[in-house]
Amino acid sequence: MPAYNGRGFIERSLPPLIDMLRRGELVEVIVVDDTSTDDTAAMATGMGARVMPSGGRLGPGGARNVAAAQATGEILWFVDADVVVHGDAARVLQLAIAEPGVTAVFGSYDDQPPARNFLSQYKNLVHHFYHHRGNSEASTFWAGCGAVRRDAFLAVGGFDVVRYTRPSIEDIELGYRLRAAGGRILLWPALQGTHLKVWRFFNLIHTEVFCRAIPWSRLMLSQTGLVNDLNVGKAERLRAAGAGLFFAGVVACLHPSVPWWIAFALFGAVALANIELLRLFYRRKGPLFALRGLLFHQVYYLYSSAAFAWCWFESRMSKARPSS
Question: Which of 9, 71, 177, 270 has the largest CB neighbor count within 10 A?
Answer without folding.
Answer: 270
